[in-house]
């Protein structure tokens, strides 16, 4: 599984480090299958992640092959890298939630294209917390050291909002 993912990713970058942490038997709990999570760190310190898991035992889908799971996880990670932004597509809604519940100040985050889950989450925030986001395309061009425009993947978005100023009323203030 890991060797297949490394083989796919080595086509794009040669210095890839994959650390494995596997559990078998009782150490893995009552896990019905297996999976792989790949994380990429950008030069700016952002982490992008992708994961693939096997079909559970007894499902209507055919049993998963570890090599297919490795290939799927590598392709998903490459898609997340292409999408770009400061958070991956599965973490967009968490970043949005932190912005909304934060101080009554302007917050911004750069993301790749919004996932369907995040779009619906923004609708729920508008409905329940009456906080609206300004979503605009990031028009800044990324230039390399030699003055050429860099190919930075998919369209980037800038999400901006004013936080609701949520605070825990049960917390003691000294």
UniProtKB/TrEMBL annotation:
Protein name listed in UniProt: RNA 3'-terminal phosphate cyclase insert domain-containing protein
Xref: Gene3D superfamilies: RNA 3'-terminal phosphate cyclase domain
Species in which this protein is naturally found: Pomacea canaliculata (Golden apple snail)
Domain RNA 3'-terminal phosphate cyclase insert, residue spans: 1-81
GO molecular function: RNA endonuclease activity
GO cellular component: nucleolus
One Pfam family named in its UniProt record: RTC_insert
GO biological process, one term: endonucleolytic cleavage of tricistronic rRNA transcript (SSU-rRNA, 5.8S rRNA, LSU-rRNA)
Transmembrane segment boundaries: none
């Amino acid at each position: 599984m890991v060797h297949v993912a490394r083989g796919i990713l080595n086509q794009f970058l040669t210095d890839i480090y994959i650390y494995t942490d596997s559990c078998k038997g009782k150490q893995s709990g009552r896990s019905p299958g297996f999976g792989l999570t790949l994380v990429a760190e950008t030069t700016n310190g952002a982490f992008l992640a992708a994961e693939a898991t096997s079909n559970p035992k007894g499902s209507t889908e055919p049993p998963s092959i570890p090599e297919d799971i490795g290939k799927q996880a590598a392709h998903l990670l490459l898609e997340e890298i292409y999408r770009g932004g400061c958070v991956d597509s599965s973490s967009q809604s968490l970043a949005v939630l932190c912005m909304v519940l934060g101080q009554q100040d302007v917050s911004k985050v750069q993301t790749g294209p919004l996932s369907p889950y995040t779009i619906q989450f923004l609708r729920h925030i508008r409905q329940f917390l009456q906080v609206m986001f300004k979503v605009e395309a990031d028009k800044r061009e990324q230039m390399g050291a030699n003055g050429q425009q860099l190919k930075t993947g998919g369209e980037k978005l800038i999400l901006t909002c004013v936080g609701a100023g949520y605070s825990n009323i049960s917390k003691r203030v000294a």
